[in-house]
Amino acid sequence: MESGPIQRPRPLWQAAVALSLWTALFALGWLLLAGPDPAAWIIGVPTVAGAVWAKARLSDRRVGGLSPLGVVRFLPYFLWESLKGGIDVALRVVGPRVRVDPGYLEYRMHLLRPSARVAFMDAVNLLPGTLTADVAGDRLSIHTLDRGAEPLQSLNELEKRIGDLFGERLPTHRTPEP
């Protein structure tokens, strides 16, 4: 029976850095959800501690999960794209002239890890005017608000960033697939 590579334990300093980054990330999430009220931390501290414990306990080191540093790098991109997407959709449908020409496009994913693929499919929804409609193997059917807009560059950038988040390296320039 074939077995995978031997997993060496992570040096203590790397584990401490990862634990610190995850704690800070979960604490920031709690702060964004609950607000700055100090009383919220009565529940927040045990919640953050439980989330860090669950992350450490449930992580599967063999498949390589999220990189804490990758999460920190992804967060500003995610927030900016979410804001842009919300503003774009609002301006398209609320203005005096509705600017929509809906349609579908097909996109081939290059991510390998199932968790990275799910994260990508979910994150497609944050791009302006796009929504994951269906998946079949490595192909996504994406609903767009504007068939004239070419979201391929945005989709490639998003997939690259999700790949970085999960430790996958993807080609930087890809062309549409037939």
The N- to C-terminal Cα distance equals 40 Å
Rg, Cα atoms, Å = 19 Å
Helix content: 40-55%
The biggest sheet, with number of strands, parallel, antiparallel or mixed sense and barrel status, is: 3 strands, antiparallel
The CATH topology assignment of the largest domain is: Alpha-Beta Plaits
Shape: globular
Give the total of domains.
Answer: 2
CATH class of the largest domain: Alpha Beta
**H/E element sequence:** HHHEHEEH
Query: Structural class of the helices, strands and pairings?
Result: mainly alpha
Residue share in β-strands: 5-15%
Strand order of the largest sheet: 1-3-2
- What is the tally of helical segments? 5
The total strand number stands at 3
Q: Which CATH architecture of the largest domain would you pick?
A: 2-Layer Sandwich
Mean pLDDT: 81
Subunit organisation of the chains: single chain
Query: Which spans of ≥5 residues are poorly predicted at pLDDT below 50?
Result: 1-6
Overview of the molecule:
The chain has 178 residues and is mainly α. The protein has two domains: 12-58, no CATH class; 68-165, Alpha-Beta Plaits (2-Layer Sandwich), CATH 3.30.70. 52% of the residues lie in helices and 11% in strands. It contains five helices and three strands. The protein has helices at 12-34, 41-58, 68-94, 114-123, 152-165; strands at 103-108, 130-136, 139-144. Strands 1-3-2 form a three-stranded antiparallel beta sheet, with no helix packed on it. A hairpin with a 2-residue loop joins strand 2 and strand 3 (139-144). Helix 1 crosses helix 2, helix 1 runs parallel beside helix 3 (68-94) and helix 4 (114-123) crosses helix 5 (152-165). The longest helix has 27 residues, at 68-94. The protein is globular and about 55 Å long. It starts with 11 loop residues before the first helix and ends in a 13-residue tail after the last helix.
